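Tutorial sheet, problem 5. The two components below are modelled jointly, 457 residues in total.
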Amino acid sequence: MNQVNPLHLGGLLLVVLMFLFFKLHGIKEELAEAKSEFLVSQTLAVDLNALKSVYADKTKIKKSLERILGQKSIVAAKLHVKRDKKFVKISSQSMDAAVLNGLMGKILNASFNITTLKIKRLSDTKASLEMEIKW
Amino acid sequence: MIYKRKRGLTLLTRFKRSASVVFLDPQMSETVICEKGEKLDIILSPRLYWVKKMKLPVATVREVKKLLPSIFEDSLPLGHYSYYAYKSEDEFILFAYEDKIILDLILSKGISTTDIRSIHFAQSEFMDLEDAVSITDKESMYVKETLVVLAPSAWLTESRNLELTNITLSKHTIKLQQFGHIVDNKSLFKIGGVLVVLALILLVEIFVASAKRDAVLEAKEELFSKYNLQSTMIQNKSIQKKYSKIYKTQTKLRATIAVFLSMPLKQSQKITLLEYKNKKLFVSIKGVKKGSENTLLSKLNAKKLKYKTSFNGESIKVEVSL
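Model answer (structure tokens):
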């Protein structure tokens, strides 16, 4: 016939409620944190993906550069092109200024990672070129 | 008909100590020693309850129970009452009792509530009593018009001792509400119900929030997989920082070259060297006299570029840090 004190029962229910409340509060905080982290990750992922496609996609960079170097006027300039694992070096002791102008216009308008560049005026129509592009 | 009980809570009686049936009356001074493992059946003296016998226009005890508080409403002193009823032939026997008073009496005799097997009314257990039985030296119990009542022994011609050894107890038992005086059952169920509903709402909220959190975490994992990201954010941020730096430098290089190429050069002025190394851009322009470079360099100032200049004859060398 022993019975439970209703105040104890009420107290227990209140403790359970408080536990559930704090649990809910904790999960909601976790949810807010997860959402915030997701948004940060999403922004980072999109940004990083765009940057990688520009500076880390070796195949894409190579293809784009080869297309420029393959143009008739530039092939005719007989540039010295040295391809390495991490970079490509393009140089010419003396080349036509107009061709150089066209080449640089294309290089600078694309998103190549130029690590070194040296253009020296030799005469009104001639110039020398040294350029290193990282890929 | 109502039999009133008195409120002197001094006593209790057990007539046969080896038996487990106990007669409980406040006027009796004996105490009960309950042996280990023994359970007690308690019979309440008429002094511990109020009783009414009446015909009612209802068929079942269940219906009667709903009416009990209003039936006893005008006849009971102020207190927290519990009620009980059973049918006897075509009439109902109705009871009202105070749990706390009975419990206090039980506890004052050293009986633990865990040692009680059942509690009965004297009315249901002694209604077939033929002779009066003495309860104390001064009082006896007898049946008057089918109701078990107490009366001074002096009023009765003869009375015998109460014998509980061979008594067969009825099925009419009550359960005392130990905390009925604190909060009544209805309020308790209402409060409990509200708290349980709140707990359920919180549980549902926890479930929903938990599911949302898991979905977001899953989406994040998919994001990492889709964009082929490194496993930690530190690694990814480091890579992003590296490429962002390259992007900024390359953008600035192109913008700075564009500034030099759009400079308003005179006929005699020519760019002789354009060199970029170690994040520095060097530009040499011939045909520039010292002191006349301000007009030439005004574009660099307009773009707020930081630069250094040096002269070698009529040739100026501009150094811009990117």
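Marking note: Residues 1-56 of chain A form one domain. Full credit if you identified this.
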